[in-house]
Structures are given as C-alpha cells and as structure tokens.
Amino acid sequence: MKIAGIAINADAGLIDGNLNKLRKELAFYQELGFSWVEVAPHGLGAIYHGRLNPRRLQELQSILKEYPFRYTVHGPNPMNLMNDEPNNIEWQMFLASIEFTAAIGANIMVYHAGRYWPEEKFLAHEMPCQTPQEKQALWEKERLLLTKLADIAGHASVTIAVENARPYLDAAHYCYAESLAELGRMVRAVNHEHVGIALDVGHAHLAACRYGFDLVQEVSLISCFVKHIHLHDNFGHCCYSTERKQYEMDATGRGDMHMPIGWGNIPAAEVLAQLGDYRGSITLELRPRYREYYHEALLSARQLVTAAERVNSWPVSNAG
User: Fold this and answer.
1) How high is the pLDDT of residue 320?
2) For domain 2-311, which architecture applies?
3) Domain boundaries in the chain?
4) CB atoms < 10 A from the CB of 30, how many?
5) pLDDT tens digit sequence for 295-304
6) pLDDT at position 313
C-alpha cells in the first residue's frame, strides 16, 4: 500500500453551487493539512441537464488552481447507466462528468454502481418484482456502457471508479453492488484498465451486516480492483430508505452515518490490511455535521494508514 494522500470530501449539499462557500471550504481544508479534496460537479453547479456549463467550469478551474490540492471527482449521485426510461440523459451526463474530471486535472471519477431500481423511485412507486432475466439485461447494459465509457475515459487519462452501494431494509438487492463480490464480477467483465472499484468502507460494512458476509474476506477478494477508497464509520445498522433526518439517525446509530473513523465499529485496520497493492488516495467522506472534527479525523487516518503499513511490512509513505 502506498497512499498518495488523504482527501476530504467537499460536501455537495453544503456548497450547493455557491463559489464563496467553495473558497471558504478549500481554505479550511488547507489550514487543516489535507492534501487532496474530492469535489462533485453537481455540488459545484457545473452540470445542468447532463451537460457542462462552460462558464462555470472556467470559474471553477480558476478557483481550484488557487489551492495546492490534488483532486478526485464524485459523479452525480443519481447517474445510473441502468436507467431504461425514454429520453434518459445518463450517457451525456457521464460524458460531462469525465470531461469535468479531466478539465480540473483529476484522474479518478467515482460512479455509484447502476441500480435496478433507483433510490428516487423507492417512495414514488411500489418496488417491482424484477425477474432474474430482467436484472441480467440491465446488468449487461451497464457492462456494455461502462466498456464504451472506459475507452473515452482512458483517452482523457481518467479512471472510472465504480462505488459499492449502501443497503436498505426496505429495498433488498436493488443494486448488484451491495455485494462486493458482484461488483468485482462487473469490473472483471468490463476488463478495462480505466475501470475499477471505489471501495466505500462504510457501505461495505452496512452490507456485510445486512446480508451476513464477512467484510474483511470480501475486501480481500476484490482488492486487486480497488482504484479509490472512501473511509468513514458507522455501527452496521441498516435503516429504511425513508429515514433521512441525520440527527435522529445518529442518536439511534442507524444508517450510513459517515462519521469519522473510530467513532463506530468498522474494523478499518483489518480492511486496509487487505489492500497491500493499493496505490492512490483515501477520501474521508464525512458529513458536514462533523466539520469541527475534520482535523482529528485526518490525524486518526494518518495513524491508521501508518499502523496498517507497519503490520504488513509495507513501506511507510508520507500520507498528507
């Protein structure tokens, strides 16, 4: 394992397209000692109706260059290559996301794995009873589109990192990537050097507790595909998709809490120990409600990385 740096996510909802807030956050991250930042084009107001806003892109390029960070990109959360609705804009939105990633000098673009039934439809419609054949057709559609997009991303020196999904109590198996093994199967089928896995440790812990698989073992099986890491903590208690008030969920210890590592019960050191061949950055994907603890989270992550490297006799790198 050789960590290139530790990033903090510039929360899309917190910034909400406000460039003054972006500057404030970047200055704050610099003061804390982060060397990388993960940004989201949708949170920065860079993509509208699936297309880049050239004026906003120029403004963002200028601002991001004012700071000494290296950047990674998180694509729009609703982007779903399995979307089979007429006139969907997934393809052009994906192209815009790759273009944005290249334009700011980043080389990782995170994509939430395709959903058979997307989150935004959970409350609007009764969950369908999809047949295995229907799900396989959507899986194949995702594989084909990812393969095509990988070539485009490769020409832009961008790697698509497909993120494993969080589970819900009321929507079992809505996404193939609730399973790390199934996500590995997809990446193996795409078989392209510019497509890998964005390992979200928090999501994986929730899924392991929900479906009863061994988290550490599953990580070891897909470790060769990992191109990016999201690190945050929770207690492994899944929630319903209707539970959205984070202050209530934190009090009960439920859901995808995105706490600083060490606050929950994820065996983070054991997980990182499976990633000896990993080369890249680690993003501390934290909710803004923990903003005053970001520096503490950075120090803890540095210690965790150093300890994991020492245990496995990996060369200790300067994870800034």
Assistant:
1) 52
2) Alpha-Beta Barrel (3.20)
3) 2-311
4) 15
5) 999 999 999 9
6) 54
